[in-house]
């Protein structure tokens, strides 16, 4: 299933990042921690947004890529700006992105459950049609 | 037909999303790494602990060397003083100056202030944010300030004598005094008038009451007789301050 591909690449990316940062000790100053967290949330939102666009048949490469880059930059930029002006703008990014994650996730869930229901009803109507055909033949 | 396929061509977008998941994984690892390296105790990275330890060891070594050297210098000065009365007078003045500089051991009566962390976990948000159940560096520094104001003549914190260049700083879970780490329970010994100092510190609105506001056991004070305080063994060299000496009378005038 394609879902496993996504999970696998996520785990692979995490493993690569872990090796780079913990073993080879690529230094990230700890003052960047909140910006990285918000950027990660923006990435998560883009993933779910991409999946939702894909299953709706509206996926476009350029929108997807530019969305990821710009959302991440905007989220980290908002967090940085919030630090400078004393307002917790990181909270804004978190709430907005979190809302979209839940929204996209619920739409994806709805789509697949609808598919499941349709497949089941198709199955039932197929069974009924088969039974009718068999019954007709035997008559 | 599987649930996860339909008439719309899905496969075209899974590769892009997979690549993004990969990048997201790296981002998550970075965020996780930076967050775990900021732990509650301020430093959980063992490699960083190694970098802390060698300056601490070096400071201890330097302090021991300073102590030895200063004692040796005093010995030599005392030996030189036997040459005559003038030398004896000058040497006495010199050794007295050393006592005032806190670089010699002293003993006397005074008080002992014990500061300790509280075992009660903070419940309301104000206490949690300020960590009022812990003893902080500014608590120790304020107590030392009050002791000085109350007339303490010699102060030591957990065996570290407070000299005029001594600093009390917070370094993660421990407090550094003279570059050496001290952790609660912190015992502050002060030589001076026991009644005056104890009364001054215990007064209403004073520093001990402030510390005791969260938990009364956090600050204790008792009078003690015959305490012996170690010498200040840190560096007391002047690099920037240049002494101003009064002009010496010329040689010709002194021999007239």
Outline of this structure?
By secondary structure, chain A is an all-alpha fold.
Topology record:
The complex is a heterodimer of chains A (139) and B (256).
Chain A: H1 2-23, H2 33-55, H3 61-85, H4 89-138
Helix pairs in contact in A: 2-3, 2-4, 3-4
Chain B: H1 11-36, H2 46-81, H3 85-100, E1 106-115, H4 125-130, H5 137-149, E2 154-157, E3 160-161, E4 168-171, E5 174-177, E6 180-182, E7 186-191, H6 194-202, H7 207-212, E8 219-229, H8 251-254
Helix pairs in contact in B: 2-3
- What is the name of the CATH superfamily of the domain at 106-229 in chain B? Protein of unknown function DUF881
CATH topology heading of the domain at 106-229 in chain B: Alpha-Beta Plaits
The mean pLDDT of chain B is 80
The assigned structural class of chain A equals mainly alpha
Q: State the share of residues found in helices of chain A, binned by percent.
A: over 70%
Helix amount of chain B, in percent?
40-55%
Order of helices and strands of chain B: HHHEHHEEEEEEHHEH
Fraction of residues in β-strands of chain A: under 5%
Counting helices, strands and paired strands, the structural category of chain B is: alpha+beta
Topology pattern of chain A, helix = H, strand = E: HHHH
The total of beta strands of chain B comes to 8
| Most extensive interface | A-B, 50 and 34 residues
- Shape estimate of chain A: elongated
Radius of gyration of chain A: 23 Å
Flag low-confidence runs of chain B: 40-44
| Biggest beta-sheet profile of chain A | none
Uncertain runs of chain A? none
Shape of chain B: flat
Structural domains of chain A: how many: 1
What characterizes the major β-sheet of chain B? 5 strands, antiparallel
Explained architecture:
The complex is a heterodimer of chains A (139) and B (256). Chain A is mainly alpha-helical and 139 residues long. Chain A has one domain (31-138). Chain A has 4 helices and no strands. Chain A has helices at 2-23, 33-55, 61-85, 89-138. In chain A, helix 2 (33-55) runs parallel beside helix 4. The radius of gyration of chain A is 23 Å and the shape is elongated. Among the domains of chain B are: 52-100, no CATH class; 106-229, Protein of unknown function DUF881 (Alpha-Beta Plaits, 2-Layer Sandwich), CATH 3.30.70.1880. Helices cover 45% and strands 17% of the residues of chain B. Chain B has 8 helices and 8 strands; from the N terminus they run H-H-H-E-H-H-E-E-E-E-E-E-H-H-E-H. In chain B, helix 2 (46-81) runs antiparallel to helix 3. The model of chain B is unreliable at 40-44 (pLDDT under 50).
């Amino acid at each position: 299933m394609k879902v496993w591909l996504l999970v696998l690449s996520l785990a692979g990316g995490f493993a690569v990042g872990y090796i780079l940062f913990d073993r080879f000790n690529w230094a990230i100053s700890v003052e960047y921690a909140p910006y990285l967290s918000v950027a990660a949330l923006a990435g998560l939102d883009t993933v779910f947004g991409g999946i939702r666009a894909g299953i709706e048949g509206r996926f476009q490469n350029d929108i997807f890529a530019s969305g990821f880059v710009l959302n991440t930059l905007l989220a980290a930029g908002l967090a940085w700006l919030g630090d400078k002006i004393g307002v917790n703008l990181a909270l804004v990014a978190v709430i907005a992105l979190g809302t979209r994650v839940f929204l996209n996730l619920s739409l994806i869930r709805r789509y697949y459950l609808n598919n499941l229901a349709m497949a089941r009803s198709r199955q039932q109507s197929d069974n009924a049609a088969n039974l009718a055909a068999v019954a007709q033949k035997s008559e | 037909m599987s649930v996860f396929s339909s008439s719309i061509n899905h496969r075209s977008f899974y590769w892009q999303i997979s690549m993004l998941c990969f990048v997201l994984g790296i981002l998550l690892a970075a965020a996780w790494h930076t967050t775990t390296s900021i732990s509650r105790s301020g430093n959980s990275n063992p490699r960083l602990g190694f970098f802390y330890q060698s300056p601490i060891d070096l400071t201890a070594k330097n302090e021991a060397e300073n102590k030895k050297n200063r004692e040796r210098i005093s010995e030599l000065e005392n030996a030189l003083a036997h040459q005559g009365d003038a030398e004896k007078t000058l040497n006495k003045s010199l050794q007295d100056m050393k006592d005032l500089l806190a670089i010699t051991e002293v003993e006397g009566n005074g008080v002992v202030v014990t500061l300790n962390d509280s075992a009660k976990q903070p419940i309301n948000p104000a206490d949690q944010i300020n960590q009022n159940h812990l003893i902080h560096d500014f608590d120790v520094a304020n107590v030392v300030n009050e002791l000085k104001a109350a007339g303490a003549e010699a102060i030591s914190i957990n065996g570290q004598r407070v000299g005029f260049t001594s600093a009390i700083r917070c370094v993660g879970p421990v407090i550094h005094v003279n570059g050496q780490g001290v952790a609660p329970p912190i015992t502050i010994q002060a030589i001076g008038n026991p009644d005056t100092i104890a009364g001054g510190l215990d007064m209403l609105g004073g520093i001990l009451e402030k510390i005791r506001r969260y938990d009364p056991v956090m600050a204790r004070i008792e009078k003690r007789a015959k305490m012996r305080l170690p010498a200040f063994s840190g560096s007391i060299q002047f690099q920037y301050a240049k002494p101003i000496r009064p002009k010496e009378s010329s040689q010709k005038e002194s021999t007239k």
